[in-house]
Every structure is written in C-alpha cells, then in structure tokens.
Design brief:
two-stranded antiparallel ribbon, 7 strands, single chain, 2 helices, mainly beta
Length: 131
Amino acid sequence: MSKATLNNAKSEVINNNFLLENPDIPLEPLVQVFTEIPKMETITFTNHRDPGITLNFHYASKTHPIKHYDLVHGQQYTLPVEVIKHLEGQNGHDPYSCHKRLYGKRMRSDGVSEIFENGYVSYFRCQPVRA
C-alpha cells in the first residue's frame, strides 16, 4: 500500500490538512491598507560616516510600507518625514541608532578619573532644501 504524500495530493487536500493542523492561520495573504499619505520633505542627504559609499537600507513601520532606499552623499531626495527622523536618530525606541557616541574624562570627587558619555555625532544629516 502506498501512502499519499502532500506533494502528490490535490490542493483541496493540502488546504484541508493545513486547516486541521493550524486553524488560526488564514490561507489568503494579508494585504496592508494605508489610509494616510505621509508628509514628504525635500532634503539634501549628507553621509558623515562613509561619504563615498551609497547608503542602502530598508524602512517600514505601521504607517510606512516597506521600501528600499539608496541615498548618495550630496544628492537631493524627497523623503517621508518619518524616514528623515529615523536617519537623524530622532526615534524614541533607539535614539543612538544613527549616531556615534562621544566619550570624555572627568574627575570624580574622590580624585579618580572616569569615562562618561559627553554627547553624540550624527552619522547622517538631512538638510531641508529651501525653494
């Protein structure tokens, strides 16, 4: 007796078996519908980390669908404000995502020197273009 495998079964049998094992997972792909149009701003992108190399990254959030960006140092782009804030490190969940920390030394009251975070320097800068 040969046992039927899923690879040889009809699509109805595969869907039925899938639903029996995982009834909470929908078979149809989820479609994201965005009701807001993001506010766009024209900027000049400057790359202080690697000026000669194109910055390639993906960005997605609840209000912004996933998109691939290629940004070149010194070029003008029209980007959503949310992406600009992310590049400049003005996001709440990780404020140092696009920054380099600066450290300094100071003397404690007992005379021992210690290292502390003195500030930060942004890797990327998005200067608004004035018309």
